[in-house]
Each structure stands twice: as C-alpha cells, then as structure tokens.
Amino acid sequence: MHMIAQAPPEAQNKRLIIAKIAVVVLYAVGVVGLSLPEYRELFLKLTPAQLLLTLVILLGYHKGWSDAFPIFATAAFWIGFGAEIIGIHTGYLFGDYVYGTTLGPKLWDVPIVIGVNWFILVYLTGTVFHKATDNDYYAALLGATAMTVIDYIMEPVAVALDFWYWKFEIIPAGNYFAWFGVAFLIHLIYRKANFDRENPLAAWMLVAMILFFTILNFTLEL
Question: Which regions span the lipid bilayer (predicted)?
C-alpha cells in the first residue's frame, strides 16, 4: 500500500500562514469595499463569490475526509436551506422576511448560498468547540449559542446590504430562538458524524467573519 507523502512541517506552516493572510485580505477588502458607497455595488455582487471562496479555503485545510463527512455536509446544507424555505413561505420558524438580490441565484425564493452559509457556520463553530467537552449535547449547545450570537451581529448588516428584509423592519425575537434550534440540530449531527474535526484554519476564519460583520455594524449607515 502506497503512502501519500506529506509536506514537511516547515512547508505546512508556511502554507498555513499564507492561508491566514489570504483570509485577512479577503475579509478586510470586503469591509473596505462595502463601507465605501462608490464601491459598494461592485462588492455586493461579489458577496456569493466571497462565501464560496471561504468554503474552498476552509475545505483545503479539512482533514477528516471519511464517508461521514459528505453526509454531514449534505445534511447541514439541506436542513439549513429547508428551514429557510419554510421560513420564507410560511412565516414560521424565523418570522416574516424575504431575500434580496445580493446573495445571488435562488431556489424556491431562497439563495442557494444560504445552505453553504449554514454549513460553514456549523463547521466553524463546531470545530472551534469540539474539544471543549465530550458531551455531544453540551457541545451542540455551545455551538448553537455561538451561532446565535453571530446571527445577532449579522442581522443589521444583512438588512442594510440587501441580504434579506424583515416585515415592518422588525427582527422578531423568534428568529433567534429558531436559529438556535436549527443550529442545535445540525450541531448534533456534526457531533455524531465520525470524522476528524481538526482544521487549523477554522478558529482564524471564524474570528475573521465575526470581525467582518462587527466592523460593518459601525461603518455602514444602519
């Protein structure tokens, strides 16, 4: 049986440093472009591409390519996406809202990249907290709580940038409870799936995303 040669530790460290710099540049440029009115329209069009590039970079450092991983990834995408479909068409779960055009092509009135976003957020928060406890339910509680905090930070920015709109311009409290519930369910699947959860880029990227939305809360006219 042939063994796949791995790069020496020095090369791996350099590659990781380059990836971290790329993440900083990706989100820093996004903050600047979205904060400047003269460039905002261009950067809004690039939003889906930024999210997909984030996915590619993140998966480039994923180590657990077992059969369980694509099952988890598919479940995360479709549970998150399905919850959004229910929310859009019924008003249940998250409340009354509609998606704008910023997030790109839609399926059943929901941007396709929303499913990608659910996967990325669960993957990042799950990876960051996966060593915090051996209890799957407590770990899911931590991950879902972190995602709810992120949603709270993201909501004003999302509305300002035409991601989505709320009826009467009011974000209902039920949105956060439903977000927590869906996130908790997907986090449980994440914990039950049998794959290596190590990703040296996950914490760095999660911080970059949180700072991205936090800074935009101050630079945009919300």
Answer: 16-36, 42-61, 68-95, 107-125, 137-154, 174-190, 202-220
**96, burial (CB in 10 Å: exposed 0-12, middle 13-18, buried 19+):** middle
Give dist(CA 159, CA 181) in Å, integer: 22
Specify the residue for token string 């760095």.
204
SS3 200: coil
Element (H, E) at 50: helix 47-59
Report if residue 197 sits inside a domain.
Answer: yes
Q: Which residues contact 146 (CB under 8 A, 6 or more apart)?
A: 125, 128, 129
Classify 67 as helix, strand or coil: coil
The tens digit of pLDDT for each residue in 149-165 reads 999 999 999 999 999 99
Q: Which residues contact 214 (CB under 8 A, 6 or more apart)?
A: 153
Per the structure, the count of domains in the chain is 1
Q: Are 222 and 156 in contact (CB under 8 A)?
A: yes
Cα separation of 110 and 174, whole Å? Answer: 19
How far apart (Å, rounded) are the C-alpha atoms in residues 163 and 174?
Answer: 19
User: In this structure, is residue 169 part of a structural domain?
Assistant: yes
Q: Which domain holds residue 151?
A: 48-219
Residues 150 and 128: their CA atoms lie apart, in Å, by 14
59 close to 19: Cβ distance less than 8 angstroms? no
Token couple for 15: 């590659």
Over residues 172-185, mean pLDDT? 95
